[in-house]
Amino acid sequence: MEGGGEIESDPTNTIPSGKKTLFPLVLVTVLFFLWGFAYGLLDVLNKHFQNVLGLTKLQSTGLQVAYFGAYIVFPPIGSMIVRRFGYKVSIIGGLTLYIIGAILFWPCAQFKTFGGFVAATFVIACGLSNLEVAANTYITVLGSPKTASFRLNLSQSFNGLGSFAGPLIASKYFFGSGHGGDLTSVKYIYLGIACGVFLVAIGFFFAKLPEITDEMMSEESNIPTKPLLKQRHFIGGVLAQWLYVAAQVTVATFFINLLNEDGIHSDTKASQLLSYSLLLFTLGRFIATFLMKFLQPRYILGIYATLCTVLCALSIGLHGISGIICIMILFFFESCMYPTIFTLALQDLGGNTKRAGGFVVMGVGGGAIFPPIQGAIADKTSTRISQIVPTVGYTYLIIYAFLLAKAPTPSSDVESK
């Protein structure tokens, strides 16, 4: 490539640290807002399509299956792209897919084809999964390993801001006066998204990002690169990411339906409460980031997972305002889980870090598994009873945090040999 398209390599062949990491960290953090916004809209679209297209709860989860199914299919490809071409090319490629998928929403809304929306959502999610492979791994390795969880939680906090903004906008334009029965607002919102993401892609094209190779990771870590299948904290982390995302997605997907059963019959009001819940999610992530200066990340994860399990279980039995409060507070304690699991799973992997990042991002595919299961249960019983599904996912996270998440020390590797 010419001009701004070249990958910048560090002539000292060392991982940047200190002030050198500030600009790349800020630029990559913008990406977290973008996919938080896309995800925040997804849960509201789920209910909007139920209303406009006459879908059942189970049918409407086709969006979640497409979105999170892309994370099963695409991350291995994304992992190869980032290892072969570097972080910058991988990020621009992901943004391009995001733009294409967002533009496709226009004809789908014009012809009211739910299958088209599912396909367009899949394209967007392929782009987002590629961004996650690159951005999450980049934030993790760009600096000291000791502060990896702190950095990723801080950057991912802006993901929460995007998730908060999505439902807030959707509550006005999807369910507001004059928009509740058609898909016109969907066309214009996603066209605006495409334009915004295009500007971000231009910014990345001309930016200079320091590249970090597998060889640099191996040299900096001073830890022998072992097969991933022999790394207990990595294998357990992949499963933890699957179950966490599966649980988080089902809670958000049926949030509006749950509130309808608990006495909030206005979809506009329920969508606004979802937005406020995601604001609690964002606040929880900032607080968790602060706590990581004093406590080990796995202990914070374990405490938060315990509270999520309890709150999700309570939402099954409690009715009315009590159940609503439980499910809203649950979002606060979900906050640190994704980035913390990601960094715990990737700790001390040396030259395998980029490849491992692809597998951990595949854990987002868990979001394609739980929603149809919960949707089927909700259609036959109630949304409250179907909350047993995410409760199971949160329970495993307690086990991972307290028993599996600690990586073996270099000294224990030597002893085991």
From TrEMBL:
Listed transmembrane segments: 21-42, 62-82, 89-107, 113-138, 188-207, 234-256, 276-295, 307-333, 353-373, 385-405
Superkingdom to which the source organism belongs: Eukaryota
Keyword set, alphabetical order: Cell membrane, Membrane, Transmembrane, Transmembrane helix
Main location: membrane
Topology within the bilayer: Multi-pass membrane protein
GO cellular component: plasma membrane
Subcellular localization(s) per the UniProt record: Cell inner membrane
Pfam families in the record: MFS_1 (PF07690)
InterPro entries attached to this UniProt entry: MFS, MFS_trans_sf, MFS_TsgA-like
A Gene Ontology molecular function term of the record: transmembrane transporter activity
PANTHER family: L-FUCOSE-PROTON SYMPORTER, PROTEIN TSGA
Name of protein: Uncharacterized protein
Organism in which the protein naturally occurs: Ceratodon purpureus (Fire moss)
